[in-house]
Structure formats: C-alpha cells, structure tokens
Amino acid sequence: MTTPPALDTAATTTHGAKLSRSLGVGGNVLITLSGISPASSVFILGGAALAVYGTGVFWGFALAGVISLLIAYCYAELGSRHPIAGGDYSLVSRVLGPASGAAVFLISLVTLPLIVAIFALGVADYLGVAIAGLDPLWTAIVVIVLATVTACFNIRANAWVTGAFLVVEMAALALLAVLGLVHVERPITDLLDPQALDTATGGLAPLGIAGLVLAITQGIFSYNGYGGAIYFAEETRNARRSIARAVIWSAVITVLAELVPLTAILLGADSLEELFGAALPVETFLSARSGDAITIVVLVAVALAIVNAIIAIALQSGRLLFAAARDRALPAAVATPLATISPATRMPVAATVVMGALALAACFIPFDVLLNATGSTLAFSYGFIALAALVVRRQSDAAARAGEDLTGTFRMPLYPLAPVVSLIAIASIFVIGILDPAQWVSLGIAIGIVVAGFAYYGLYLRRNPGTAHLLAAEDDEWEPAK
C-alpha cells in the first residue's frame, strides 16, 4: 500500500472525531471575512477614528494595513506548517510550547465570548432604525441563541449563510465608496497632512505623532480577524497549501474593503469639520449623500453584518474549545464531551453550545467592563504569533534537514521582516498603553489573563503530564480531500 501524500495532512484527530474536510479556499475566506465584518468595522471603529483622528485615519489605516499584511504572513506560515483547528492556541502551543499555548488559550477563551456579547448588544442600535423599541439585552440574547444554533449546522451550510450576509455588507461598503468618489470635494494630497478637529476652535489642527500612532492602533484592531481562517484548517481541503492563501486573501480583502470607503468619505465629504464633529461620522456622510431611506437600508445591512460576524465567531469559538479539549488541555471530565463531533453534521456541537452559553452570560456584564476586558488582549495574541513565526521557520528547516516532506507549505517572503516589524509595532502599542492612564485597566486585565494562563499550565497541566497531549503535525491522521 502506497503512503498517501503529505500535502493533505492536517490534524484531524487521534481521538476518533473527524471534522468535515469540505471547504475550499473560497468557503474559508467567506466565513473568515464574516467574522471580521468589514462593514461594522467601518461604521463603528472607522467612524470613531474619524471623529478623533480626522484625516489621520488615511495614514493610520494605510499603515495599519501594511502591518496587518505582515502579521497575516506570520499566520500563513504558521498555519501552513500546523494546519490544525483551534486558531492562535493551536499554533502557539505547537511552536512555543504548552505554557504559551495555555496563555493564548485563556486569552481566546475569555475574549471570544466577550466580543460576541459586545457585537450582539450593538445589534439593536442599528436594527432599531427599522424596528423601533428593541431592547438591547433581549435582542442580544435572541441573536446569540440563533447564531449558536446556526453554528451547529454543517460547515458548508454555514459558508453559504455567512456568504449571503457578506454580499449584503460588501454592497453597503461599495455604496459608501461610490458616494464619496462620484462627488470628490478635495484632492487626495489633502489627506497626506494628518489633521484632526480642534474642539476649542472648531477648525482643523495638525495631528501629532502620538495621535497618528493611535490611529494605526485603531486600524490594526479594525482589520483584526484574518487569522480566523486557521480555525477552519481541518475543514479546508489541501490545507497545507490552502490555509495560507485563505489567510492572506482575507487580510488583503479586509484592508481594501475598509480603507477604500473610509478614504472615499474623506475625499467626498462636503465639510471635514462637520464630518469629524458629527456624533456618527459615517452615518452622517451617508445620510447627506443618499437620503434617509437609503441610510435606513444600509444601517439594517450593518445590523445583518453584525449578526453574520456573531455566527462566524461562534464557529471559531467552538473550534477553540474543541481543539483544547481534544489536546487534553482540560480536565478529562470536561474534555471528553467537548472533544466530541456530531455524527450528523460533523461539527463540534457541544463545544459550540458551551461557548454560546458563555457569550449569553457575558451580555449581563456592564458594557464598559466588556470593552476593557477585550481592549489590549489583541496585542498579546499578535505578540505570541509574531514570536512563533520567528521560531517556526527554524523548526521547519530542521524538519526538512531531517527528511520530512514539507511540499506545499508556505514560506513568507523577506523573512524575518514580517515578524520583526510586527513585534516592533506591538511593542509600540504596549508603550502607548503604559503611557496612557486611560489604557491601564484594559492593559492590566490583559496581563492578568496571560499570567493566569501561565499559572494554569504551571499549577495544573505541568503537574498532570498524562492529561495534556498536544497533537503534533507528524502524528496526525491523513484524510483524503473530499
């Protein structure tokens, strides 16, 4: 019997549960982009950035796009080398070791349900333009329940559902871009000198370097999510080759889908002073250019985009908990049911439902606490990914010298430029957080989560070596593409 090719090796499991390898690159990208939700990022994060950083958003989001693409290269090489469900946790634990993996697992375990709760609590604000009197809490609860149920369907069905929603939100972004570019009020050279609204005078004033760096930080946060493609590695055909393409395509599309409409708004707004001074800059621009009726339709589309993001994040959350349970990084009594796969849908239903329940519970946490708890964790996650990207190349070279077949794996160009620049950018974010007292609570919570993760490893996993068993890529079962 001939040995099957290594190209499709992708960590199905050694515990008998198999996810359905039925996604192509396109299906993976559809779900990943849905989790990013470019439309809600433009309206919520982009709008907030316009109000604070003015035309600095152009440079800030452009430079953030470059940094995001560099981080995407890190994800791509890591995911190609270890195409295993579980996202950041699976990558970091296999490259940097189980201690770092435990820290990243706890970051994701805490933040993913909180992000779902934040998104869900915001649905009523946008859906309320069409349906008056919606209660934010009950709307969030209904949305999370429906999203969790949907996330338990088979992965191809979820790709179709999220893809349909994604078309709607991309159309909304295309409309914003067209409205700005058909009535250009100023040349693009006006955006090269970053200026923000001076609340004291009501006019524009130069944006300092600190403000520009903060705009970059906002852009990085707005683009976040392209690494989510890794969560679906075990459900993607030809994973070693395909997963890198899914990550990079998701990052490129996200940057363009957000940067182009924001730039169009800056070029097409009648008055930059009025735009930056508006409570909701993007909605204000849309209403002025298209009228109230179209604005309502677009805001409903944004609400659907948020719901779509919740479905996609619910899919990612389930795979995080499933992967950790399958790795035996949890106590056996908990891990056994969470590591099961539904025979009907070939989905980690139990893990998905548990993460949905955590998101429901998070809806009852005060909103400012939710924001503080998620604010600085992204920088820690990216830091671990960049460090892992520096290490994985040496591991891959050593494996190749030892005779391992790495055909089809992705190797980022200009190594080690991407991880080094990413680490410098992340270090800058930490410095800004330390210097800004307003960020101390968020930064403190993030540090506390990371410390708790290392403590969990030291106090439990390390003391129970028979419990923890990380699946190594070379131990994975081979499953032919379907």
TrEMBL record:
Taxonomy, superkingdom: Bacteria
Signal peptide start and end residues: none
Keywords for this protein: Cell membrane, Membrane, Transmembrane, Transmembrane helix
Membrane topology category: Multi-pass membrane protein
InterPro entries linked: AA/rel_permease1, APC_superfamily
Cellular location(s): Cell membrane
Gene3D superfamilies: Amino acid/polyamine transporter I (1.20.1740.10)
Keyword Magnesium: no
Entry GO MF terms: transmembrane transporter activity
Cellular component terms (Gene Ontology): plasma membrane
The keyword Membrane is annotated on this UniProt entry: yes
Transmembrane annotation, as ranges: 29-52, 58-78, 99-124, 136-153, 160-184, 204-226, 246-267, 293-315, 349-367, 373-392, 413-434, 440-459
Pfam families, per database record: AA_permease_2
Protein name (record): APC family permease
Organism: Agromyces binzhouensis
Phylogenetic lineage: Bacteria, Bacillati, Actinomycetota, Actinomycetes, Micrococcales
